[in-house]
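Job type: complex structure
Entries:
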Amino acid sequence: MRVKALETLLVEKGLVDPAALDEIIDTYQNRIGPKNGAIVVAKAWCDPAFRSALLTNGTKAVSDLGFYGRQGEHITIVENTPEQHNMVVCTLCSCYPWPLLGIPPSWYKSDAYRARAVRDPRAVLAEFAVTLPEGQAVRVWDSTAEMRYLVLPMRPKGTEGWSQEMLAELVTRDSMVGTGLPKSP
Amino acid sequence: MDKPVFSEPWHAQLFAVTVHLSETGLFGWPEWTELFGRVLKEHGHEKSLDGGDDYFQAWLEALELMLENKNSAKASEIEQLVAAWRGAYLRTPHGEPVRL
């Protein structure tokens, strides 16, 4: 009710346009989500030139695919390798690459995740049922309003010759935040 | 199945109002995240937030603070409308749309 009151007040003051609010909600509820990020990841797995462009200038490479807009102004893609696993957090609030992943899930916004991802990433990963090989380091990236991150997971083995569309099905939201791995074929 | 993006309609409403105000230039997003981050931290001292309702409660408080800072809406004005809406809910027969 308080939000309703606030909205009424702002509409009365001419600060808020109700149609614009509906458009914003529809966008994030129905149109933008992790499927966008999955397209980017699958393309990077199939197309070496795109992969290299993506790692050099993530913002430009994803906006060339049509993924840009709010909270997508500065995106860095961090690539998982056998030596390094990447994981993304926002310790301040919940900065997240909206154009690629939509709105973050509750756990990303929780104190438990925000506080512990940096301090003890392996323990957090274990809670997500992710166990990494001994030799693979974990690097945690702290998002801000100025810079957001997307993890480029490693392409699952046994997917040689797969189409980009089939590969995209394996890419989960969590695998792009670094709290999961892509599905196995 | 993934959970809905917003678990409560008011979360979605609040989110949209904030994004819209930022886009129309009332405040910048970095300015917002700084203030919101501070309020979240304060709320987190009392109990560990689970990222659901409690997260958006902090969000609402931060937005009201921002509006107060920008002289866009005072707490007293919001209170008045809360009371008006509460009255409207109580007056409206079940099943009919609630109007002020």
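Summary: Residues 18-31 of chain A form the longest helix (14 residues). Strands of chain A lie at 75-79, 84-89, 137-142, 148-152.
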